[in-house]
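Subject: two folds for Thursday's group meeting

Dear M.,

Sorry for the delay on this. The cluster queue was jammed most of the week, so I only got both jobs back this morning. I'm pasting them in the order they finished. Each block is the input sequence followed by the predicted structure tokens. Could you check whether the formatting survives your parser before we put anything on slides? The first protein is the one we discussed after the seminar.
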Amino acid sequence: MTPEDYRLVVSAVAGIALSIFLIVRGRLHPFVGLLCGAFTVGLLAGIPLDETVKSVEKGAGSILGGTGLVVALGLGLGAMLQLSDGAGGLARAALRLSGVRGAPWASLFTALLVGLPLFFETGLVLLLPIVASAAAALPNGQNDDASKLRLMLPALAGLSVVHALVPPHPGPLLAVDALGASLGLTLLYGLLVGIPTAIIAGPLLARFTARGVKLSPPLLAPAKVEVNAPSVGRALTAVLLPVVLIAAGQAVALAPPAVTASLRWISWVSDPVVALLVANLAALPLLFGHKLGDRHIQGEIWTEAMTPAGSILLAIGAGGALKQVLVTAGLSDMLVRLADGGGVSPLVLAWGVAVCIRLATGSATVATITTAGVMSGLVKASGVEPEWMVLAIGAGSLFFSHVNDPGFWLVKSYLGTDMPGTFRTWSVMETVVAVVGLLLVLAASSVF
């Protein structure tokens, strides 16, 4: 490494360290902390101030320009599933069918299914109270705190995996765009890696981590409106519609040119923004029936959806700004040289960078966006398939959730665990997802 490389590393570490300090110790919102970190990197790396400002604006603008609609529409669909109790109906049906012995597995696969179109936070708000109620209804002798956790932790594992590894979630979707990956292959590979990862980190791991953890009554409960709950079939249609549309577009892209030309409209509706818009429009009659035009319900849907949207978009935008300053400073080029000269696997290197940013910022989405931006040059130089790079980054973005992660506090509130119990269950589970996910990515990428 050259002196300039060392200066760049020091600049990046100092900027990220400042972000950590401001977010964790200064209690600032990640938006402010990440912006301060971005300007610090630019200053220490010797980038002129006006160029740093342009990089910040470019990074935030490019991320939000392609992500804002996806975030808003995803939150809208999640709000409808929550307020109508559609997701709750799916969860209860799965738990009824599974019985007591199969309940942890039903919890896991319900989370994998329901979590496909939902943000992690939305899925958590929807599912955990339902799963907790099912856990409380377990027969006497099987409803102790450990048994309840063995039912709730698999749901968290399922939600985490789809959030980090499976489009159309914003993190993987943005990484697909940044790295030039195939959306369809990333979706397929994400499920291939994600399902066994969730099984290991969910039902299997919970048998050990749940022991001895004490629960208090959960602090939070989901909001609802007064409507007749939709049938399981209607709710399932709303959940799967955007995934089916996106997958259909990818399938058409693989068809012969003559077929592709006649089905061009499918390619159009498979765009994530269009697919989510169609899903939102279809979900209104599916989930609310004749009350879809009720002004109160419409207001509740978008109030529920937009309440977290501002915070999410600001954090994502600031993460994009930090990413762009790091790229402008030359970090991407330095990582390419490091991978070429040091014999480090590009997938392991990408995973490690995502881990560092995750630990620094507490946001899986910010870690994914930032890492994908700085690793784009490495994908081209190394020849590694970008789909596997997306998944390696996604796995690293989940590593060890702790106090600077808003999800940590949300999980703590819904589980009813104390701080040590949350670290022992949730933080350990996230770390296992990250490590197992990387190992499966490395194994699968050597085969496919």
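Second protein, same layout:
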Amino acid sequence: MPTWLIAFLDGAKRLPWWRIFGFTAAGGVVIALAGAAAIYVIGTRDLPDHKALTEYAPPTTSRVHAGDGGLIAEFAREHRLFVPIESIPEPVVNAFLSAEDKNFFEHSGVDFMGFVRANITNIGRVLAGRRPHGASTITQQVARLMLLAKEDTVSRKLREMFLSFRIERSLGKDRILEIYLNQIWLGRRSYGVAAAALNYFNKPLADLTQAEAAYLAALPKGPDNYHPERRKAAAIDRRNWVLERMVVNNFITADERAEFAAEDLVTVNRFAGPEFNAASYFVEEVRRAAIDELGEDAVYNGGLSIRSTIDTKTQIAARAALRKGLEAYDRRRSWRGPKTRIELGEGWDKRLAAVELDPDIAPWVAVVVTEIGAKSAKIGFADGQIAELAADDVAWAKRLKREDIDKAQGLQPGDVVYVN
């Protein structure tokens, strides 16, 4: 042991215990202050200007209407309908608060108790091999969404926390919540709750049920994780978890939760109607004309309302007549071959579902021929079901022109065709 260290220890032995304790405490305070100073420097260095949020004016969707006022198209890079906070229904707000930040109106930007609870919970999740939960408040999410780079580092987290304190001092709670509910990505081309209500349920916010509002509140953690068709069971479980949190937070009763949780999760594709397909080529001309006249930024970000001259009823009738004529022509001309071919065997339904189909083919659907018999053909659908076509329904497909005889032999197993 070095001589100087021996001398130091001998001297320390002669000091009263309270002095040793005092020196130790003082050293601890110095270290703590130095650490706090380092955290402050790292967390506040080159912070973006949070005051830009006071002028929050996000890109919004431009909408195209037919002559009768019906919606026929939307143009947007970010599909969003801005809704002021006072117009967002309370059930929607309460669902998001329960799912994302129950103490939003109590904390000053960072929920330290929530942070501690989340990390205690995450110990068990990590040990179980599950992904840890985040502990960001709504204010922190606004800071991350609007002002910070998307990186998962300690320095970014510190910057997020300090920025959240500044945002809270500059903006009121309602303004922060307004920004969050209009900015958050919720899947299905939806930025913000108003666009999501339309794109998932084809409803304005005011018409959502509590179960539907809870489902939207389940989506910020990852819309693909709770897809309403591909992962419906997980989506319902997460929705019901949000409803349970609403009970804990006294927004709904346990009986109401049971009622809402029993509701099925049914979403709609609001652009699947015949009026949208009928207007597709016309809409493209409208888009080009609008860009020529107003510029791309106005068309894709400006929230325009464009009234056009198209009569969708007449257009639908014209397309139906054209389709009927083309189908009759095909039957007279005879078989032109399948859309494509796929390999039969295990997984044929998934391969069929992956085939890129022609647009606007409804009510025709794509099937694969699985078997050809003397009097019928068996066909398979993308959901795995098998059906039978009578010989009379496929006889015309065997009539070939002389020059086509070497090209095809009528329907064959593996052919992907359209049936109605």
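Two things I noticed about the second structure. The longest strand covers residues 365-372. Residues 33-43, 400-408 have pLDDT under 50 and may be disordered.

Cheers,
T.
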